[in-house]
Amino acid sequence: MALTELRALDRLLTPLQEWLTPEVATRIAGLRADALTRARLDDLAGKNAEGTISPEERSEYEALVSAGNLIAVLQAKTRAVLAGRG
Length: 86
Description:
Helix content is 73%, strand content 0%. By secondary structure, the chain is mainly α. The protein is elongated and about 45 Å long. The two termini are 25 Å apart.
């Protein structure tokens, strides 16, 4: 995801800070992928770096990376709420 896409996502998610309770923010901030998903992402990242990734795998990899970016931006918003800057 390009930096401009991350900035757009950041702007789109800013309103969420208004209704996030500390409890919900804490749960979102602690969200982590399970071990199987992390292992799959690592496998796909390796194949991507080696140039051996198939088109189907590339689509899966890009979806996982995009989802990870979404979660990362959302977690940044939740940390702001928890820090009292929401």
